[in-house]
Design goal:
Largest sheet: 6 strands, mixed
Number of helices: 16
Number of strands: 21
Shape: globular
Strand content: 15-25%
Structural class: alpha/beta
Radius of gyration: 22 Å
Helix content: 25-40%
Length: 472
């Protein structure tokens, strides 16, 4: 028996369940374990196997606390509806993604009977109903509330639109689980994301944990299970900003490449770097997350091929298109498949590179040249990440690859797409020990220790984007 009382951190992913034992006194990672997530049967089986792997490294440990996050069974699936795509619908998407959810569908303007049928088929975990600034358009959100009242599936509805229509919406949706919140966009230039995100996380705990079969895991934990993306965002904010006199590493972009999705995080202002640039659209949050549900190495492998083209993936891998398609079908049908053949190894590298390039391009802002009576100017939509100095990558397909840094470079600015505001001269860090999301779990109670552990883990695998050693 080892006379130490460490912390146990559990991350139940869509493909793998990871566990980490952490000694807070050093601080140090004592050991890690992993096993396939057994979501089709009982997630505790995979957790037990991961814990056994950990114990083979460390011996028997008595844990002083246990924390867990999960994205099993696809994580927290949400549908949102708003008024105008560039305004209230976009605000709704920001609220969902910042809370650790995955947007599986979003709607603008008035819902139709076909839309309701699609929503029923999707059976979302939560529906976010917004629309109109306070005192503005009431017609659309009232129409959508009436349409939703006829939905056949049962899901909680977070109501966060025009406050002048809120009471009527509640009346139209009577009999359903309604959570009335402040307007996500009370004015055209104001976003109010935090209350909605807090409610979404509360619903994850109240409704989703039981539905996903995670109730047994929750027994014995020191705090409730949270969505893995929320934990990752917490970790990235801590790593960027620091805590209590311990400095962070500054603005950053992080990419988490998973079996089902690719999540991108930017902890950065995203302000224009050019003096002649005008920003268009809603203000971007300093801590931003996007999730690409069609960019996954296994469950969403066909989405990568559709987004970039089978021919492009074939060219990147050196395989012919028929082989690429056959192997992709195999990966989709058998998501636990490891890249254990030469063909699968080169395909995995190509898929990872394509997924990262596409996901970061979607996350970053864009810029276009326009001419006005006063002369040439530039119009920016979204965040300008070109001057962000740090790129962090994680996810099984990256961290276990000998070409991790080369894959990561596909996230950077590409002269062939000059309007995309992706990072340029950026240092690259690889989360080789797969600890970042777990450090987000640790961050709430032990932020200084979590920061130290992240710096230690990332510092051992730091290279510059240009291939030169880091400047220490």
């Amino acid at each position: 028996m080892i006379a130490i009382y460490p912390i146990l951190l559990i991350d139940i992913g869509s493909t793998y369940t990871k566990v980490i034992a952490v000694d807070l006194d050093a601080p140090a990672v004592l050991g890690t374990g992993a096993a396939h997530t057994t979501i089709q049967t009982d997630v505790t089986a995979g957790l037990t196997e991961a814990l056994a792997a950990l114990e083979r490294q460390t011996g028997t440990l008595l844990f002083r606390a246990r924390f867990a996050c999960s994205s099993a069974a696809g994580g927290l699936a949400m549908v949102a509806s708003g008024l105008v795509p560039a305004l209230t619908e976009k605000a709704a998407r920001m609220a969902c993604l910042g809370a650790g959810a995955k947007i599986i569908r979003s709607f603008s303007y008035g819902l139709t009977e076909e839309d309701i049928a699609e929503i029923d088929s999707l059976a979302p975990d939560i529906f976010l109903l917004v629309g109109g600034v306070d005192g503005g358009n009431e017609k659309v959100i009232l129409h959508n509330a009436e349409m939703l009242s006829a939905a056949k599936t049962d899901f909680p509805i977070v109501l966060a639109g025009n406050r002048n229509a809120a009471a009527q919406c509640e009346a139209l949706l009577r009999g359903r689980a309604i959570y009335r919140m402040e307007n996500v966009m009370p004015r055209l230039d104001v976003l109010n994301l935090e209350p909605i995100q807090a409610q979404i996380r509360a619903l994850f705990l109240e409704h989703i944990i039981h539905a996903k079969g995670l109730s047994r895991v929750a027994v014995g934990l020191s705090s409730p299970i949270i969505p893995t993306p929320a934990a990752m965002l917490e970790a990235m904010e801590l790593l960027s900003s620091g805590t209590g006199g311990a400095a962070g590493i500054g603005q950053l972009v992080a990419v988490d490449l998973g079996g089902a999705t690719t999540d991108v995080y930017s902890i950065a202002t995203g302000a224009p770097t050019g003096v002649s640039t005008i920003v268009k659209g809603l203000p971007e949050p300093f801590a931003k997350r996007t999730v690409e549900g069609d960019m996954g190495m296994r469950y969403s492998v066909h989405g990568i091929l559709e987004a970039v083209g089978t021919e492009a993936v074939a060219a990147m891998s050196g395989l012919d298109t028929e082989t690429v398609q056959q192997l992709a079908d195999c990966l989709f049908q058998n998501p636990n498949t490891l890249p254990d053949t030469p063909a699968l190894k080169v395909l995995d590298r190509a898929l990872a590179s394509a997924a990262i390039a596409t996901a970061v391009a979607r996350h970053a802002g864009t810029i276009e040249e326009v001419y006005t009576p006063l002369g040439q100017t530039f119009l920016q939509v979204g965040k300008d990440l070109t001057e962000v100095g740090t790129l962090i990558v994680t996810g099984g397909a990256i961290i276990h690859s000998p070409d991790a840094e080369e894959i990561a470079r596909h996230a950077l600015f590409d002269a062939r797409s000059p309007t995309s505001l992706r990072p340029k001269g950026t240092d690259i860090y690889v989360d080789r020990h797969y600890i970042l999301a777990s450090m987000g779990l640790l961050a709430k109670a032990y932020p200084r220790e979590a920061l130290v552990l992240m710096k230690q883990a990332l510092g051992t695998t730091h290279v510059r984007a240009d291939g030169n050693p880091p400047v220490v």
